[in-house]
Amino acid sequence: MTKPLVYFLCTGNSCRSQIADGFLRAMGGERYEVRSAGLEAHGLNPRAVQVMEEAGVDISTHTSDVIDSELLNRADYVITLCGHADEHCPVIQRQEVIKWHWGFDDPAQAKGTEEEIMGQFRHVRDAIQSRIRQFLEEGN
Question: pTM, whole model, 2 decimals?
Answer without folding.
Answer: 0.93
